[in-house]
Amino acid sequence: MTALCFLSTAFEVKHTANGRYGILLSDLWIDTGLHCGECLQILLDGRWVQTRMEMDAERNWYLVGTPYRGDLEYIQARI
Fold it and tell me: Which long-range contacts does 13-18 make (Cβ < 8 Å, 24+ apart)?
């Protein structure tokens, strides 16, 4: 299981050149490739929600327990 380091700064989820989503702060990559099962928090309806990255059978990324599926860019997240 991935250890979580909670940061006070919110980052954006962005699609990277390697085909994975990563965590971007301004123009600095914090994490260039999130993997299935990797835990993070996202801002959902004004509060931080614990979730994890997964991929479905059609190879679409989604965040468990959230409405986010497919295009995950620009979601505010923290790890």
Answer: 13/42, 13/72, 13/73, 13/74, 13/75, 13/76, 13/77, 14/73, 14/74, 15/72, 15/73
CATH number for the segment(s) 11-78: 2.40.10.390
Q: Is 68 helix (H, G, I), strand (E, B) or coil?
A: coil
**Confidence bin at 17 (pLDDT 50/70/90):** low
Written as one letter, the residue type at 71 is: D
Using one digit for the tens of pLDDT, what is the confidence trace for 25-69?
Answer: 666 666 666 778 889 899 999 999 999 999 999 988 899 999 999
Instruction: Name the token pair of 38.
Output: 């990797």
